[in-house]
Design brief:
The complex is a heterodimer. By secondary structure, chain A is α/β, with parallel strands linked by helices. Chain A folds into two domains: 187 residues, Rossmann fold; 71 residues, no CATH class. Helices cover 38% and strands 25% of the residues of chain A. Chain A contains nine helices and ten strands. In chain A, helix 3 packs across helix 4, helix 3 packs parallel to helix 5 and helix 7 packs across helix 9. The longest helix of chain A is centred in the last third of the chain and has 19 residues. Chain A starts with 7 loop residues before the first strand and ends in a 7-residue tail after the last helix. Chain B has two domains: 40 residues; 209 residues, MetI-like fold (Orthogonal Bundle), CATH 1.10.3720.10. Helix content of chain B is 72%, strand content 0%. In chain B, helix 1 runs antiparallel to helix 9, helix 6 crosses helix 7 and helix 9 packs antiparallel against helix 11. The two termini of chain B are 46 Å apart. Classes of the chains: A alpha/beta, B mainly alpha. Chains A and B meet through strand 6, helix 2, helix 3 and helix 5 of A and helix 8 and helix 9 of B.
Chain lengths: 267, 302
């Protein structure tokens, strides 16, 4: 891995919000690299600035100091090679557009010709198992299906990096399991690099090739952990592995320490 | 007394938010349009019952009027019976002059409404998108908005004489503020996640305006339009009565001085029917344009 150059580098990133009551330090200093084709999960206690981090990474929010580099270029605005899936699918999908038009909108804005657009959209919806709801409106679908539409929109955008901000925090447990497997499949099928933020420890271990554990606010990287589980994962088998239990217990312990404010040196 | 009612009706209230239904919750599966079971017979029978009740209400009103007139509670030359008025209304409908008068009213109304809505849309969008302009105009808007349209009739006559132009100034004034406020609030209502989504997918300013900001503002604009249409109608009739430009309002005043009570009452009924039609029309437009909006869509079981 050391011989490769990172695709995405977060270097000593910090963010302090200026509010009426004074500055609020959301992130103290975060550094980590993501290599091409990796699936990295970021997990941390609630309120540790995961969303802030993601907004900085995706160029939606300027950091106070530090840098985010994608493909060697500093990110100062949303990069064209990055797609984001937000937690709030109900607000992220536009209710006035059909499923197809929602998925097609970024391509339309980019000037992709109509015929090509239709083909790409259809393939993307097929990838997430929703090719039958083209003309439906997102609000006519269940929460899980809506998030699939949002994933299809990101897939159709054909990004190098897919960034997901707690995408399954608002769906029920069974749907969540299906969507987790969907993310693994999309990652493998498309060879895309995935940065997946979650507060769910099991989810981070089940999904990730690597887990970056964040500390409590003011946030630093608590640990950067490689997940040495088999590449083929399934909800029953993988979660029953002793190694899975070890890893999740380890991450859980780290988060508990993080909550108590104990700093364990970053790996 | 008339002008008092008009005044209270034509001062512009604050912004009216489109009705918000709670967002679909997780796991709640809405029925896709057209594939799920049709709404059961229950709502349809409810609709029939409502129509019957509405009809009974109208019948009750007519009967009360008839009894009042027959009992001669009021001097019959001031209050003709309902049947006399209704017969007169039918007779009016056969007169070409009635239709040209109605046409005058409708032209003033439509022209005034179009100018008000058009100007408010353009100005509202520009002001709404530029924070500096929004702050700079806020207090002026809040000062000008509550001035009743009727209060500027003398000013309008002074500027444009006893003409349709003067009437248009009056008809445009209140609806303009009504729609402007709605546009401003609509544009300010863009959801942050929706905006982040658009930005992260590389939509530029113009594309965000077209695909996000304007659709977000649309429910507000439609609500403003519906209110503005009704206000503009009231103001059209008022200006015809007071300024004397051709139209139903002036005809009402002519019948008053004739004196021709049945004609007067028949035309008042016409203005009521006009208001009803305008409301039905704007509601239909609302349902059509906002079929995706929580206030209109019905598919979600609740």
């Amino acid at each position: 891995m050391a011989d490769r150059t990172p695709l995405l580098s977060v270097t000593e990133l910090s963010k302090t919000y200026l509010s009426a009551t004074g500055p609020v330090e959301a992130i103290r200093s975060i550094s980590f690299d993501v290599y091409p084709g990796e699936l990295v999960c970021i997990v941390g206690p609630s309120g540790c600035g995961k969303t802030t981090l993601l907004k900085c990474v995706s160029g939606l929010l300027p950091p106070t100091s530090g840098t985010v580099t994608l493909d060697g270029a500093e990110v100062t605005r949303p990069p064209a090679t990055m797609a984001v899936v937000f937690q709030e699918y109900g607000q992220s999908l536009y209710p006035w557009l059909t499923v197809r038009d929602n998925v097609a909108l970024p391509l339309r804005a980019r000037g992709v010709p109509r015929a090509e657009r239709a083909a790409v959209v259809e393939r993307a919806l097929e990838e997430v198992g929703l090719s039958h709801v083209l003309r439906t409106y997102p609000w006519q679908l269940s929460g899980g299906m809506q998030q699939r539409v949002a994933i299809a929109r990101a897939v159709a955008y054909q990004p190098e990096v897919l960034v997901m901000d707690e995408p399954f925090a608002a769906v029920d447990a069974q749907t969540r399991a299906d969507l987790e497997d969907l993310v693994r499949r999309v990652w493998k099928d498309l060879g895309v690099t995935v940065l997946f933020v979650t507060h769910d420890i099991d989810e981070s271990v089940y999904l990730g090739e690597r887990v970056v554990v964040l500390s409590a606010s003011p946030t630093v990287v608590q640990e950067d952990l490689a997940v040495d589980l088999p590449a083929e994962r399934d909800q029953l088998g993988t979660r029953a592995l002793p190694r899975f239990t070890e890893l999740r217990t380890h991450v859980y312990g780290q988060i508990q320490r993080a909550k108590r404010g104990e700093q364990v040196g970053a790996a | 007394m008339l002008s008092e009612t008009v005044t209270s009706m034509t001062t512009v209230p604050g912004p009216v938010a489109p009705e918000q239904a709670p967002r679909a919750r997780d796991g709640v599966r809405a029925t896709p349009r057209g594939t799920g079971p049709r709404p059961s017979a229950r709502p349809r029978s409810r609709r029939t019952r409502r129509a019957v009740l509405g009809f009974l209400g109208v019948l009750g009103f007519a009967a009360t009027w008839e009894l009042f007139a027959l009992a001669e509670v009021v001097n019959p030359s001031y209050l003709p019976s309902f049947t006399t008025t209704a017969r007169r209304l039918v007779a009016e409908l056969g007169e070409p002059r009635f239709w040209s008068t109605l046409g005058d009213t409708l032209i003033t109304w439509a022209l005034g409404l179009a100018i008000a809505v058009g100007a408010a849309l353009v100005l509202g969008t520009v002001i709404g998108l530029v924070p500096f302009l929004r702050r700079a105009t806020h207090s002026t808007v809040e000062f000008l908005r509550p001035i009743p349209s009727v209060a500027i009739i003398p000013l309008a006559v002074l500027v444009a004489g006893l003409s349709r132009e003067a009437a248009l100034i009056v008809v445009v004034y209140a609806p303009f503020w009504q729609v402007l406020i709605q546009v401003l609030y609509g544009i300010a209502d863009v959801n942050t996640v929706a905006r982040d989504t658009a930005r992260s997918f590389g939509l530029g300013r113009a594309q965000r305006l077209r695909h996000l900001v304007l659709p977000t503002a649309l429910p507000y604009v439609i609500t403003g339009f519906r209110l503005a249409a009704a206000i503009a109608l009231v103001l059209t009739i008022t200006s015809e009565l007071v300024i004397g430009n051709p139209g139903i309002g002036r005809q009402i005043d002519l019948y008053r001085s004739a004196p021709d009570a049945p004609g007067l009452y028949a035309l008042v009924l016409v203005t009521g029917l006009l208001g009803l039609l305008v409301n039905l029309g704007t509601r239909a437009i609302e349902r059509r344009v906002l079929h995706w909006h929580p206030s209109v869509r019905r598919e979600t079981p609740r």
